[in-house]
Amino acid sequence: MPRINRRVALQWISSATIAIPLLEREAPAAEKSGLRPPSVVAKGYGPDPDLIRIYKPGDLWPLTFTKDQRRLMIVLCDIIMPADESSPSASSLGVHDFVDEWISSPYPAQAGDRKILLEGMDLLDEKGVRRGKPNFVSLAAKDQLVICEDLARKAKADPGRFPGSFFYRLRNLVAGGYYTTPVGMKDIGYIGNVPQAEWNGPPAEVLKKLNLPAQ
Amino acid sequence: MSVISPKQKHREYDVVIVGSGAGGGQMAYTLTMEGIKVLVLEAGRMFDPVAETAMFHTWDKAPLRGVATPDKQKDFYDASIESGWEIPGEPYTNASKDKLRQFVWWRQRMMGGRTNHWGRVSLRNGPYDFKTHSRQGIGFDWPISYDDLAPWYDKAEMLVGIFGDSEGIENSPDSSPGVLLPPPKFRAGELLARERTRKLGVSVVPVHRAVLTRQQDAQRIPGKLHPRNKKAQRLLAANMRLRLKCFFATACHRGCSIKAAFDSTSVYLTPALKTGNLHILPNAMAREVTLDKAGKASGVTFIDKTTGAEHHASGRVIVLAAGSQESVRLLLNSTSTQFPDGLANSSGKVGKYLTDSVASRVSGQIPALEALPLHNEDGVVGQQAYMPWWLAGQQHALDFPGGYKTLLVSGRKMPNLNIGKSFDRVSGGDGIPFGRKLKEDARRYHGSFQSIGAQGAMAANDDCFCELDPEVKDKWGIPVLRFHWKWSDDELRQVSHQQQAMTEMLEAMGGRFFRASYVDEPEKAISQGGKIIHEVGGAIMGDNPGKSVTNQWGQTWDVPNLILGDGATFPGTADKNPTLTIMALAYRAADHLAGELKKGNL
Description:
Chain A is an all-alpha fold. Chain A is built from nine helices and no strands.
C-alpha cells in the first residue's frame, strides 16, 4: 500500500486548505494534480465469507495510516469519546484502528469517507502548523478542543460541507465504533446478547416509572 | 438418500422441486413423508445454520463493524450468502428509469432460501383477503376461501412452531386452540404503545412469529400432522426434539443454531432427508422445464454451477418453488412449439399481476422512554407486538381499499455503527455532540427512539408485471427478467393514511418528531416495489383457465403435472406477510399432489 510522503502531503495540504470549499465540486481537477490520497485497490471479502471468524482491522485489507496519522487518530478518538467515570476512552478500545480499517476498505461506500477523513486530518495538522506547532497532536488539549468545537458547529450547520463533513463523519465512525464494542454497548445501556432461560418483560420499577399496570 | 452431485442423481424421481425455501421445503417435507421420491434442486450451496451462524458476535468482530457491502447486502452477519439485490452476473432490468416505477429484487442463493434470514412474522390472511374483487371491485378473488385454507394454516403452524395469541380481530384470524405457542411479554415501549394508542381504536397485540417460545410438543403434534403414518410421526418427533426453545437473545435474521427460529433446512429438509426419499442437489441453477411428446412436463434442465456443465433431472411431476419471480422466469424461458410464449402460458398471464406489501415508516422520540432503569430488552429480538388493521369494519368510509398492519419494536437494542449520529436530533448545543456530552446523551436517549412501520395490501393490477428482457442474459446465457412497476392511487392513498395514523400513534405515546410526516407526499414515504421482499404473483391461481395460470393447488391449467409451489400463485397481497400463506398453500398442494400420485392421476 503506497503512502503519501510527508513533503507531498504538506504541499497538498497547503493547496487543499485554500481550495477546500471547492474540493468536492472540483474533484476532477484535484485528481489531475496527483495530490489526492491514493485510492484502494484491495479486494473485499467476497459474497460467501466465513461468518464465524473474528476479524481485526488489517486482516482483510492493508491499512492506510502512517505512524503520525495513527497517532493523530488516537488523539481524535479520545476527544470524541473520552474516558469518564463509567467507561474508558475510544482509543483504549482500538477504535482508531477501526477508523483505519474503514478508510482502507475496498468497497465504494467507504471511498468518500477515505477522501474526506484523510483531507480533514491533514487540515488539522495544518491548523497545528499555523499555530506554530509541528502538527495537531502537538497542540495543547484546550486548543485541540477549540478546533474540534469549531468543526462540530460547522458539522451541525452543514454536515455535507467540508470541513464540517470531516468532523461529522469522523464523529459518526468513532462513536459508532465505540458503541459496537462490548464495553461501549454496556455503557450505552445495552445489556442483552446473553442467553436467558426466560424473558419476563420489563421489571416492576420500569412499569412504575411509566405508570403502566403489570403485564 | 442425501445431498448429491449431478452424477449421483437417479434416472427419474416422482417429483423434482426447484427451490428449497418456504414453498419448496414444505412440499419436499410433505411428499417425502408420504413415501414419494423427491429431488430438490437449489441454485445455492448447502448452508448449515447450526455451524455457520455467528449468533453472539458483536459488530466489532465483523469487517467494517458489519455494515452492508456489495458482498453482504443486508449486514455481515445476516444469514444470506451469495445473495442480494444485485448479484454479479445475474442481472435483471426495469423498463422505466423512474425509481418510483422500478422494482428491486432480492435473490437468495443458498439452501433454505430466504427462510434463513426471514423476520419470521407469520400472519394468516383473513377471510376478506381471499375475496378482494368481490369486496372491493379490484384485483381478484382467490379460488379458495379462508375456510379452505384454515386447516392448512393450523398444520403449518404446528409443524413450524409459531407463537402468538388469539385476539378475535376482524379479518386477522385466530389459530385453532392449542396450535400457537405462548407469545413473549412486551417490552416497556410496546406496553406504553398499547396503553396510549387504545384511544385511537388501535389494538397492540402479540405478533405471530416462527420462534419457539417453548419446545414443540413432540408427543402430540406428530400424531396430529401424520395420522396413520408412524414413520413420519417418529421422524418429526425426533426433529422437534432437536429444536430448543428461544434463549431470548440474538437476531433471528442471523440464523438460529439452536433451531428455535424456523428455517427450511432445520425444520423441513432435515427430517425429509431422514425419510430416505429425498435427494438434494445444491449449486444447480435451473434453466428450463422440459416437455415430453405428450405435452407433459418431463424434467428440468439445470447448470451445475461448480462445473458449468448442463444436466437434466427427470420427474413425473415438476414443482417450481424458486421464489415467485424466479419461478415465473423459468416458465417464460421454457418455450416450445406448444408454448412459444412460455410454458403454461396459453392465457398470456405468466408474469402478470406482480404485487408487494405497501410499506412506509414514521419515527419519533419518546421522552417517557428516556433513561429507563437498565434492563435486558432483547425478548425474542425483533417483532413481538403489532397492530392488526383496525378499520376492516369501516373500509367503506376510507378512500382506499385494503388495510395495513403496523409493527413496532421498542427498547434499547444492540447498537450498530449508525448509533453515533442518532442523538444529534435531540442533543442541544450549537455543534454536533461529542466528548463527555455525547456519552451522556447516549446513555439518556438510547432506547427512546421509536419507529413504527406499516405494511399493507396491494390488489393485482395491469401495471405491475415482468417479462423476459429481449436482450440481457445472465452469465449462463439465460434471459433475465425485465420489471414494470407502478403504484396506483389506491396504494398512495393508503400510504397517506399510514403516515397520518402512525404519526398519531407516536403522538399518543408523547412522541416528538424531527421532520413532518409524508401525509401529503406519499410517494416520498412509500417503500420501493420489492424492497420489503414480499413480492408475489406472476403465475396466479384462479378458477378460470383463461384468466389465471394455475388452479387452487398450484397445478398449471395447461400442464397438470407442473405445479407452482411458491408465492407466484398469489392473486394479490394482503396486509399480512406472505410466508405463512406460502407454507399453508404448499402444504395443501403437496397433500393434494400426494393423493393424485397415489391414485395414478399424474
